[in-house]
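FORM 12-B: Structure-to-Sequence Request
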């Protein structure tokens, strides 16, 4: 296993990007300019509840344990 692992399972920012992407894709009408897209992304980021960040931080010990059990392979994260 490569250490430190470079698995996306160990990168909680991916979860935040998913939240932002779903928020932007749910907009109707969709952003049609780069400026509108940037504003949509910024608004989505600012509206992520603090609890979501805390939950991701608290998930790190479980992520590390799962990655170790999987010997660096895929996990449920």
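FORM 12-B RESPONSE
SEQUENCE OUT:
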């Amino acid at each position: 296993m490569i250490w430190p692992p470079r698995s996306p399972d160990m990168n909680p920012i991916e979860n935040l990007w998913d939240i932002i992407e779903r928020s932007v894709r749910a907009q109707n009408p969709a952003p049609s300019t780069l400026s509108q897209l940037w504003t949509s992304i910024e608004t989505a980021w600012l509206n992520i509840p603090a609890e979501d960040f805390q939950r991701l931080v608290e998930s790190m010990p479980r992520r590390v344990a799962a990655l170790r059990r999987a010997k660096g392979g895929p996990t449920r994260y």
